[in-house]
Design goal:
The structure holds 2 protein chains of 2 kinds.
Chain A lengths: L3 H22 L18 E3 L7 E3 L8 E6 L4 H14 L5 E7 L3 H11 L5 E5 L3 H5 L7 E5 L5 E6 L4 H14 L9
Parallel strand pairs in A: 3-4, 4-5
Antiparallel strand pairs in A: 1-2, 3-6, 6-7
Chain B lengths: L1 H17 L8 H12 L17 H15 L4 H12 L14 H32 L7
The chains are: A alpha/beta, B mainly alpha.
Chain lengths: 182, 139
């Protein structure tokens, strides 16, 4: 009974230490997407380079792809760009760029300057498709499987380590069918 | 000094317009919109509500909320729409479910424990105080 205050104090120290540890290892502003394990939202968006043609969710069914949300206005996308070119492209998966609330001319200039790592680039000028995907910053990336289900989301830029540790194993898992989700 | 005040007024007026003016049909609709967007969190400036935030995403979500109101959606439907895309995190008033029990019940539980400890200590002290009084003591 006399040790009770000490025990309470020790418990408090443990709690605070856990809090500090947790904060250091988690991005506190990251909001986990409720869309993981659910069908990707429907979209029909114009291509950046052929604005009169559109690409829709259903046309992408049958093969998995990575949807990368970017914008020419987004500095972090510039940091991520060489990683898309060097790491993500080498995984052999289709890479679709979603040019998010951007001026198409700016996006074209941006891609001309840094190179275009995407197999297809579509544009979401007013950000409505972005809302459907629950996008709230750029860059963000979604891994969508052949059945059109979202399997993984990365909020923020990819690093070569994250491509190896998070994206690669999930692409390998795509061979296995998704467990039915409630 | 008056010039400064006038400038300040101008800046404040501009700021007021920076939050996109929406074509509300009457005052009641505007009040409903304000109340609803105060309940929703901006994902970009996460300590601000949709009503307060000047982030571009907040503007887009306000527009979305406004359009859904126009098409006759209830507040609940609008909240569900946002939760389906952005998680319970968008709600300033999170729902009661197993994941949020600690959040909802934790403060109450802490209060009960605290009051219990306090009562225990007070009772012990009262007993101590009674025992300490020496009836023979000369006042």
């Amino acid at each position: 009974m006399r040790l009770l205050p000490l025990a309470v104090f020790a418990a408090l120290v443990c709690l605070l230490a856990f809090g500090i540890h947790w904060n250091e290892h988690h991005e506190m502003t990251e909001v986990p997407s409720p869309l993981i394990g659910k069908p990707a939202p429907d979209f029909t968006l114009p291509y950046l380079y052929e604005a009169d043609k559109t690409l829709s969710r259903s046309e992408l069914l049958g093969k998995p792809y990575v949807l990368n949300v970017f914008g020419s206005w987004c500095p972090t996308c510039q940091y991520e760009h060489p990683i898309l070119t060097d790491s993500v492209k080498k995984l052999g998966i289709k890479l679709v760029g979603l040019d998010w609330r951007d001026d198409p001319d700016d996006a074209k200039r941006w891609l001309a300057q840094f190179g275009n790592p995407y197999d297809a680039v579509i544009t979401d000028r007013d950000g409505r498709a972005g809302i459907d995907f629950g996008v709230y910053m750029a860059p963000e990336s979604f891994l969508v499987d052949a059945q059109g289900m979202i399997r993984y989301k990365r909020i923020g830029m990819f690093t070569p380590e994250l491509v190896r540790s998070e994206l690669l194993p999930r692409i390998a898992e795509l061979a296995k069918p998704l467990q039915a989700t409630p | 000094m008056r010039g400064l005040a006038a400038l300040l007024m101008c800046v404040l007026a501009l700021r007021a317009f920076a939050i996109d003016p929406l074509p509300f049909k009457d005052r009641a609709e505007e009040v409903r919109f304000q109340n609803l967007t105060k309940e929703l969190r901006c994902l970009v400036c996460q300590n601000q509500s949709l009503a307060d935030s000047e982030a571009q995403l907040a503007g887009e979500l306000r527009r979305q909320v406004f359009e859904m109101m126009q098409s006759g959606k209830s507040d609940e439907e609008i909240k569900q729409y946002l939760v389906a895309r952005y998680n319970d995190f968008v709600l300033y008033d999170p729902p009661m479910k197993p994941g949020t029990w600690l959040l909802w019940l934790g403060p109450g539980a802490l209060l009960i424990v605290g009051v219990g400890v306090l009562l225990n200590v007070l009772r012990k002290r009262a007993r101590q105080a009674v025992a300490d009084i020496d009836p023979e003591e000369d006042w």
